[in-house]
Amino acid sequence: MTRPALRRVLVHSVAALVAVGALAGSAVAQSYPNKPVKVIVTFPPGGTPDIYGRLLSQELSTLWKQSVVVENKTGASGTIGTDSVAKAAPDGYTLLFAADASITIAPNLIASTPYNPVRDLTPIVNVAAGPFVMLAHPSFPVNDIPGLIEAARRQPGKITYASSGSGGQQHLSMEVIKQRASLDIVHIPYKGFGQGIQDVMAGHVPLIFGGITASIQLSKSGKLKAIATTGPKRSRALPDVPAVAETLPGFRIEAWYGFMGPAGLPRELVNKIHSDVMTIATRPDFQARIVADGMEPVSGSPETFGRQVADELREWGDMIRAAKIKAD
Question: What is the CATH number of domain 29-130+256-322?
């Protein structure tokens, strides 16, 4: 066989193998899922990650006509559950309903984090994002960020704030404010938001940051007052509450929630899961639910989500180092 003829045979053989591989991948995606899918949520029941992880899992179960089971695998700022997904088989049957705390924050705070979120996870789709809200006991004589700055400078080391634990956005939000405004406000970490909020409502600690969904109810009921939100602008759900950025330009801390899988998840499965989740997430009723909860719908490609993760890893690292924050 001549050399040109041999080259033509090899080219056609490679093309055939590529075509077979593409057909095989397409067949896998078309048959997925053919058994129950497990969705790992890395925070306890009742919080925003759990609520939306369960809501989307239920919707996917209906769409796929297959069980989609949520498992709360908590602990170590969400890193235990996240690591379990990073080590799972990349077959689409173990997914992570990720919150940014374990993806972009924990790796910057915990030296022993057992996974690299860029290397060991596959971004699929970001669903929703929302700010945090600085809440205060009604008796606290401060109603906005300028007032807090003035009071803290007048009484250095005397004002305290609660958080759901060291290393989360509720902790980091105040620490970044302290760093930006050169304030001395004392952190009191609790084992979860529930414990912290009880002490704030009882008047034992004046301040705490809460997720937007819970904060809407707490502030509208009059049990606590909303001082500021942490998004780049005011929340549509709390339009009368100023953003921290109105006093400290550029300030922005938001939580996001979306689906990720193990590294090596086939592109065909990534595309299918992305498409099916977006079918649910772009429905008017689902978007209305997100907005009513004080969050904003997020869309975009897996590549956009991946770039966001990489960018936020770097940004959180810069903020944490600038504020000299250490995990307890």
Answer: 3.40.190.150
